[in-house]
Amino acid sequence: MKLPLIPAPPRIKFRLNLPQRLAGLLLLVFLAECLWVIGHQQTTSADYRYARCGREMWERPLPLAGYFTTCGNLNGDGTFAYRVAGLPLTVQRLVLLGTDKLRKPENRLYVNGSLNGSTWEARHELTSVRYLLHLPFVFFALWLGAGLWWVARRLFGNEGGFLALGLYCFCPAIVRYAVAPNNEMLAMWGLYGVVYTGMGVAHAMAGPRRRWRPRILLLTLALGLTAAAHTLAAILGFVVSFFFMFYLAERKRSAVMQILVNAGVGSLVILFAFYAFRLQPFSYVFTGGGARMWFSLEPALGFAKDLLNGPILVAAAVSLLVYLAAKRSRYFGNTAPLLMVLLLAPIVTTQNVTQPWLWALPFLFTFIGGVFADVLETKHRKLFLALTGMILVAQASVCVATLSLLAR
To answer: Are residues 312 and 174 in the same domain?
Structure first.
């Protein structure tokens, strides 16, 4: 049975009205959670690894034959997180070197004030390293939360958007990965963006061609950044985008493959830039096996068995039952994120340690928001309003109560 299409959302200008303010308030609460956790964390060896190798990427990659940095060629671990972690430290170092010229020659950090000295001569002058390392990942988590709310609200209205955002902001797994340098948060951010940007391109294809180009460029950028975080996430995003775009672009299907090929080529250029246009380390993207995968439900079951996720699981179970029982809920807006959850949840990587189940969470929250928004338009509105409130309060209470555990 062919799923009914959702109409292309109208073009609207962003206004800071009450819904935007409430969404901003939720994101501020999420930021406060992350700041509290970071403030109670200890800097780990993994933090120092991201800091050291990230700075090497920005400042001067180690000139060893065949190796990009002292961390190796990172064939199983994307370069994106290292560059994100190292950039604030590099910027602070450059600021220190700029002010260094104001000092007396005998007090300068670099010999003769030269910027060509060792990469590490200013390392002891860096301050707030823990916050500089961790806050960029919090920023990407906030960006993803804002994007999740934007997508869910435009598809399902205010109720669906706020439920999806509320579950996201009070999910312990999201907070845990938002407060430490890692590629999982960046891959989750990129994959969600690739899938829904691809849908946006498909909707734009129903209009004049002049409206295609900005969204195609955005899709290319999202695909390239996702590939820099994790090769498997980019491959999955590319394949899924093809099927979703082919389904949505009814009369323009002949152009879908051409658009994605152009986006794929552009994303490879972006990925090449992450390796400083050095061919030898870049070749390990294709030979390192970072995208090798298999299927296992064990990681997803680990998330399901965690009592901290109880309210989320209740909401997911209710949403799935409603989706299967009510025909009005089985449309593309709800089906697409559900298919993404079913695709990502059982995937495990075999070459390196990664968490594809985490990438499924924004799609799960989108699905829950969409189904609950459908029921809120029926005679069961009061019952589901009460259920929505209880779920959000329970999940928020659990998350806030366990912040000290997340800081360990």
So the answer is: yes
Q: Give CA 28 to chain center in angstroms.
A: 18
Please indicate, yes or no, whether residues 394 and 305 belong to a single structural domain of this protein.
yes
**Two tokens at 286?**
């294709």
Q: Predicted confidence band at 2 (pLDDT cuts at 50, 70, 90)?
A: low
Dist CA 100 CA 307 (whole Å) = 53
Task: Kindly report the average pLDDT of the chain as a whole number.
Answer: 87
Number of domains in the chain: 3
Q: Is the pLDDT of residue 155 over 80?
A: yes
Boundary (domain end) residue, out of 273, 301, 324: 273
DSSP string computed for 180-223: S--HHHHHHHHHHHHHHHHHHHHHHTTS-GGGHHHHHHHHHHHH
Q: Is residue 278 part of a domain?
A: no
What lies within 8 Å, CB to CB, of 28 at 6+ separation is none
Same domain? For 171 and 308 the reply is: yes
Predicted TM-score of the model (pTM)? 0.91
pLDDT at 3: 59
**In whole angstroms, what separates CA 403 from the centre of its chain?**
21
Same domain, 172 and 105: no
Residue 282 in domain:
no
With the CA atoms of 76, 80, 84 and 89 taken in that order, what torsion angle do they form, in degrees rounded to the nearest 10? Answer: 60
Q: Could you read off the pLDDT of 274-313 as tens digits, one per residue?
A: 988 888 888 888 887 788 899 999 999 999 999 999 999 9
The last residue of a domain, from among 109, 127, 145: 127
Is 14 within the bounds of a domain? no
Count of CA atoms in the C-beta half-sphere (13 A) of 354: 32
Cα separation of 51 and 34, whole Å? 19
Neighbours of 250 (CB within 10 A): 11
